[in-house]
Structure formats: C-alpha cells, structure tokens
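Per reviewer request, we include the raw input and output of the structure prediction for the construct analysed in the revised manuscript.
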Amino acid sequence: MSLNFMRTTPSERVIWNPTYTNFYLQGIDCYGVLNIYPQIIQAEQFTYHDKGKSSDMVKDAAALNGNAGRMRGTSGWSVQYVLPKDFIPGKYKVAVSLRVDAPYSDGLRNAIGLYDQKMRKVIASKNIDCKNSISKKYNLFELGTWDLKPGRYIYIGGLSKKMAEANIYMDYIRLIPVNNK
C-alpha cells in the first residue's frame, strides 16, 4: 500500500504535498514506510518449491483474493514465505488461513513452522489437527507469538500420514506485532 499525505490551510483553499527531497528546495533526502497491521501475506508472495509437482499457486474461490498456495500432502516445506530483507524484526502473533482436502483419519495433522536459514534450525513449530482443517472453506489457526526477522521463513509441513490425493491449501498468513519498538 502506498500512502501520500496532503496538507491544507485552515480555509482549505491551498493544498500541497509536504514531501521534501534534495530535488525540491534543497530539503532533506529521506523517506519513510508506513506499516499497516495486521499484515496479510497472500499466495502471490509465497515461494513454491518443485513448482507444478509438489506445490503451486492455484485459483481458489474460497480464498480471500481468489488464489491460494497448494502443496501435496506427501510433500513438506514446499510452500514457504521468506521474510524479506526489509522486514521489521520483532515478536509477532502469527496465524495462517488454511484448509485440507484429505479424508479424515484419527491423528492426521500437519505442522506449520518457522525456520532460521542462518542457524539452520526450526525456531518454532505448531501441529494443526486436520479435524479442524478438512473443509471446503478456510479456517484461521493461531500459531502463537514468534520471533520474526529477515533470513527466516514460515513453512507448511506435510501431512503426518501419507495420502496420495491429499492437498494442503494456504490462503494467507497474518502477522500482528507484539510490543515491537
């Protein structure tokens, strides 16, 4: 989202953009970023590994914007969101909107996790019981408060039982900062 602030006089007869750069009146050369929360990360921002086989972005009328990340249930970590270099580090409440199209089986679950590429280890993980995600509609799953920073990524783990025709669909990831300064 881009935002352009405008200023007016009390009479509102004059309006101007209060952005000053070195190109205008020898002002300061700087800019700022306005972050709007909750931050919603959708399928277009996910990374897909083994695209077309293990994972892909697909049209899905039930998804918030009509697209979802799809991963075969026999795969693992094939749909990810890599935190970009300019991501503001800190603690965030993380939630994912997902659904599974597998037949229900006792104990069927999948994990969503946070991996640190530099440390080469899983930082956080939560198992989702598929009895709550097997549906034609998406459900929002709260994963807890995670320490997010550039160089880490959020991944979808495969199903705990291998089912040839099962898929996991991720609509979006929701991030809300927790006392970040």
